[in-house]
Amino acid sequence: MEFAAFTDRAASIEAEAADLEIVALLAEMFQMAGPDLPVVARFVQGRVFPAWQSATLDVGPRLCYDAISRAAGPNVTADDVERKLAETGEIGTVAASYEFGGQQGLAAFGSGETTELTVAEVDETLRSLAAAAGSGSQDRKVDTLFGLFNRCSPEEARYLARIVLSEMRIGVGEGAVRDAIAEAFEVPTENVERALQVSNDYGRVAGIARDEGVGGLDATGLEVGRPVQAMLAQAGTVTDALDEWDDAAVETKYDGARVQIHRKVDGDAEPASQSTDISVYSRNMEDVTDALPEIVDFVAESVDVPAILDGEVVAVDDAGDPLPFQEVLRRFRRKHDVARMREEVTLRLHAFDCLHADGDDLLEEPLATRHDRLSAVVDDEAAVSTLLRSADPDEIAVFEADALEAGHEGIMLKDPDSTYSPGNRGKHWLKRKPDVETLDLVVTGAEWGEGRRAQFLGTFLLSARDENGTFETLGKVATGITDEELATLTERLEPEIVAQEGREVEIRPSTVFEVGYEEIQRSPTYSSGYALRFPRFLSVREDKAPESADTLSRVERLAERQ
Amino acid sequence: MFQAIVSASTLRDALDSVSVLVDECKIRLNEDELAIRAVDPANVGMVDLTLDAAAFESYEADGGVIGVNLSRLEDIAGMANTGDLVHLELDEETRKLHIQIEGLSYTLALIDPDSIRQEPDIPDLDLPATIVVEGTHLDRGIKAADMVSDHIGLRVDEADETFHIEAEGDTDDVDLELGRDDLIDLSAGPADSLFSLDYLKDMNKAIPSDAEVTVELGEEFPVKLHYEFGEGMGHVTYMLAPRIQSD
């Protein structure tokens, strides 16, 4: 597929407002994509790599502006590109405003013919960016991107720039891609959905739906070593739980970081504990294996069959009592000084679910069965969560009091008959915390402070995602932040500024705040239609990416319930 | 098989001329010379390098190809003093390059040559003008152009028999005029092309200031820059595609 054909269609989708029409256009594009189908299914979401892969292009906005300015020349600088971006607010528009192609290639003078860009070529070139590393690699990345832009028409440049910066913004969410795969290849949406849940790869599932149909989709299973999204809980009460279910499975809610552990067993290793083929992923499916050596050691020792475990890593003090969440984050995602931090912060694993054990996918099994398999697989009782089955509110209250007494965050209430649904925040898992709910919101803007705080970003504009992945504003937070935090936040957010007008700046969605509030009100002031009353900053959610921040529908639910 | 001894400065000059365009390259270990050809990721600039067997203290090779990470190899070569000799030996079994400099041994893992971008065909160009100029003149022209623009014009005035290095900025202009007396040789012809300074600056970095640079030029055509190093036994040709002149 020529890249121009892709961008033509992307433009028609962007111009279309009706969801059904968008799905129809997408389906048509998938049908004509031929061998490029997997790539097209990722590109429409602004992705080059499937969600489960940790690989990223590693291309910052500035590098992209550099490449654009070089292709745009003569005498256009990266600063010019940034200024234009501040005016238009969107990189695609900026890229499309230049006339590229001034630089000729050597091929035009030799035997080689200059050919049109293809989707496959763009994909291959972008992947080579991710692979490039080393001292000269930044320059080489600019060269490579420049080479691509230089061959782009304005329309191609618009979407290339957006793919490079993962900001596709053509109104295509994950649901639309799922529905379009179903429509294009005449397979049921539910089967597509299930295959997506276990594989986390829209490109691959699109290919399977077309080439192998329903049979292929259903045969798509978990793979040890390829993370899936974690099942999530919503807030709820014991009454909610016991109204819905015969009895509840009650567990401690740990104040730690969610992990998914993939244990492979190398057939040659005897005993199995000698095989250390173990990966640990965060709830964003980021590979955090290297930061958590003792968890890897523990799993090597106590699990000797292939398995996928779900659990929480908690920091503990010398007496074994839990420490606050912030302590875990000192270890998470750390690349340097792992050994030293291991001395300072002790981590403990609490496994509470098992997605795969010794060749069996367990997603469709009830929770109670999965927990039994978990106990069988992990050869250390202390690391497996205690599950209380109870229909008695008083008994659950005692359990909760004990959990809080021991320094934990609260309790989880789970439907013992429920299956494991990756990525879903369903009503089968309820979390009960004694304090009020908080929201995890994405920072999409800010204001420079005044007076003493003039060199800091002071007030932060917060947004929630709607189902298309667009960020809708919901309020501004300026309280609860210390001067020291302001400095750190400014340092962190300043490089993400995409546009500035007066004291107000627009910020690329990259950072998630946990925010407390008194009440959610209906309000025309913000684009979400809601506003937070008395918002206060609690912390930066280092473990959350903007895509996993709270959604507008959660905000709506919370608003209804108060 | 490959086994060679070469002076550190010759090796560094060779590597520098290639590393301004690419991070990785294939090195052809021919019987009578070592050869590298590479094109930058945007397919705009190319380098063609040969280093004769005579440039080495000793040289034995039988036509193999290896892939190397250039910055890694440059770092190692950077450990040597100018007068030092560098011993290179390919281990066919492990596909590693053993490098020895004054008691320092380094084993360099090689890259699969098939994973490196394919070498380009050299466009067969018959360019009408040839200018032979000292590296230092070229350097002066490029530095001046860089003050006002990100592009540089190379032009021959046939009537005046002069070579011009010029640049137009948003507000300021620069023109370095080199007449017959300033040049080592000039064979005038219709020649006027515009180039990206990003590339030319990088190529210029690798050209020794005392080198004689042969510039072959046409109208809206690629430029060829040829120079020698290693006492005339190393040969580098750069080729750079032009930018379209807008007005």
UniProtKB/TrEMBL annotation, chain A:
InterPro entries, alphabetized: ATP-dep_DNA_ligase, DNA_ligae_ATP-dep_bac/arc, DNA_ligase_ATP-dep, DNA_ligase_ATP-dep_C, DNA_ligase_ATP-dep_cent, DNA_ligase_ATP-dep_CS, DNA_ligase_ATP-dep_N, DNA_ligase_N_sf
Catalytic reaction list: ATP + (deoxyribonucleotide)n-3'-hydroxyl + 5'-phospho-(deoxyribonucleotide)m = (deoxyribonucleotide)n+m + AMP + diphosphate
Record-listed E.C. numbers: 6.5.1.1
Enzyme class, UniProt record, top EC level: ligase
UniProt cross-references to Pfam families, sorted A to Z: DNA_ligase_A_C, DNA_ligase_A_M, DNA_ligase_A_N
CDD domains named among the record's database cross-references: Adenylation_DNA_ligase_Arch_LigB, OBF_DNA_ligase_Arch_LigB
Domain ATP-dependent DNA ligase family profile: 340-466
Cofactors (names): Mg(2+)
Keywords per UniProt: ATP-binding, Cell cycle, Cell division, DNA damage, DNA recombination, DNA repair, DNA replication, Ligase, Magnesium, Metal-binding, Nucleotide-binding
Active site as annotated: 253 (n6-amp-lysine intermediate)
Entry binding sites for ATP: 251, 258, 283, 312, 352, 425, 431
GO MF term set: ATP binding; DNA binding; DNA ligase (ATP) activity; metal ion binding
GO biological process, one term: DNA biosynthetic process
NCBIfam families tied to this protein: dnl1, LigA_Halo
Function: DNA ligase that seals nicks in double-stranded DNA during DNA replication, DNA recombination and DNA repair.
Family: Belongs to the ATP-dependent DNA ligase family.
The protein, known as: DNA ligase
Organism: Haloprofundus marisrubri
TrEMBL record, chain B:
Proliferating cell nuclear antigen PCNA C-terminal domain segment(s): 122-242
Gene Ontology MF, one: DNA polymerase processivity factor activity
Record domain Proliferating cell nuclear antigen PCNA N-terminal: where: 5-102
Keywords from the named record: DNA replication, DNA-binding
Entry annotated with the keyword Disulfide bond: no
One annotated GO biological process: leading strand elongation
Pfam families membership: PCNA_C, PCNA_N
CDD domains: PCNA
InterPro entries: DNA_clamp_sf, Pr_cel_nuc_antig, Pr_cel_nuc_antig_C, Pr_cel_nuc_antig_N
Assembly description: Homotrimer. The subunits circularize to form a toroid; DNA passes through its center. Replication factor C (RFC) is required to load the toroid on the DNA.
Stated role: Sliding clamp subunit. Responsible for tethering the catalytic subunit of DNA polymerase to DNA during high-speed replication. Sliding clamp subunit that acts as a moving platform for DNA processing. Responsible for tethering the catalytic subunit of DNA polymerase and other proteins to DNA during high-speed replication.
NCBIfam families the UniProt entry points to: PRK01115.1-5
Protein family according to the UniProt entry: Belongs to the PCNA family.
Name this polypeptide is given: DNA polymerase sliding clamp
